[in-house]
Amino acid sequence: MTIEEKAGHVQMLYYLPPWLQQIDLSALPKDRTAPFLQNLSIITHRYGRSYPQLVEKLWSSLVDSVEQNLAVILDFLVLTAVETVRICDTKCYVLILPPQRSVEFLPTARQITVCVAR
User: Fold this and answer.
1) pTM of the predicted model, to two decimals?
2) Where are the domains of the chain?
3) Handedness of CA 26, 30, 32, 37 (dihedral sign)
């Protein structure tokens, strides 16, 4: 990864929280909430280890601005984990997130849970 790519990742993670503060997940239709949270989960999975404080800020921005977002996020994590386990029990790859098995999603879910709990 080049220095320019890393700088672009940092900028993306830096500029997202103010935008996320404006989102009320409970007011969105469910068919829009799930893809939105899936994308944030993918960002967390990809950048959570490299930029943990910036990723935490993404999730805390959602929870701090609108209290109902916490319940929506936790519901999403539980449903995704259950669906992931159910699908993986049949030895298939998960379609919810990029090909990940439940054991790969659970650390991401744990990181998200820690972020929203702080």
Assistant:
1) 0.77
2) 3-117
3) positive
